């Protein structure tokens, strides 16, 4: 006798023949589902709070002390063989004060010396407001040594504090020799490199005519001037490299937007290498900070330049 199937209830379309109805969840299953939901909710909230905390801590405590050593090759037309591979290290904007810490500055000195520099150049703003209580930290820079010397210029903050006091402070506590609208010939093998130091442009202390007076136009020249945008009123040639700082790179560089705020005379050439006429300009992002003391997508920087022979 064939099996007898009960007729399908036309009012219950979901109850197909031969298909069991799903059982209602038990109390235990409901409780486990709630527990899973609550656990995921708590985990999500913890992740969100952790992300927010990291987003707060990173620009305040991590990136400001994450040093970047940039390496840049500079082609110089007709570079003498004596200067091929010359290693020049630039650092800038130390800003001794409440936002600069001794362990970081020690690390900077080690990083500079690890580049085996022939020449070390500082491009201004040793202090932020004054030199009070900063002598001990400044003396950490005594570890800087280079066979062609350690040289520097003053920046706008150095002038705002007191240029004569800061000049004396730098030369007393560090190995840096400060140039103010003057130049020095530096012998490299059988050839001469001219190092030119132009004083601060923001405060009107710059005097390029005096600084370049007596420098041969065809000479290989490294120019130190704190504000990069002032390059446009300096005598640039194909054998000139200008080194500047001042901008701090903006301290905050937003993706696709760049720095929302830049200081006077650093709004056009705010960071990195630029071709100016036939010469070169490099703007260093600096080491220290001004308020607000944060860095984002703009790490503190030391730059190594390596001179190479370029086309004439």
Summarize the structure.
With 312 residues, the chain is an alpha/beta fold.
The CATH level-2 architecture is identified as 4-Layer Sandwich
Q: Largest beta sheet: what is the strand line-up?
A: 1-12-2-3-4-5
CATH topology: Purple Acid Phosphatase, chain A, domain 2
Helical content (DSSP H or I, runs of 4+): 10-25%
The global form is globular
Helix count, DSSP H or I runs of 4 or more residues: 6
Computed Rg: 31 Å
Q: How many separate domains?
A: 1
SSE map:
Blueprint: H1 27-62, E1 68-77, E2 87-91, H2 102-113, E3 119-123, H3 135-138, E4 150-153, H4 156-161, H5 163-173, E5 177-178, E6 182-188, E7 191-197, H6 208-212, E8 220-224, E9 240-244, E10 272-276, E11 279-283, E12 301-310
Parallel strand pairs: 1-12, 2-3, 3-4, 4-5, 7-8, 8-9, 9-11
Antiparallel strand pairs: 2-12, 6-7, 10-11
How does this model look, in words?
- By secondary structure, the chain is α/β, with parallel strands linked by helices.
- The chain has one domain: 4-Layer Sandwich (Purple Acid Phosphatase, chain A, domain 2).
- It has a six-stranded mixed β-sheet with strand order 1-12-2-3-4-5, with helices on one face. Strands 6-7-8-9-11-10 form a six-stranded mixed β-sheet.
- It has six helices and twelve strands.
- The termini are far apart.
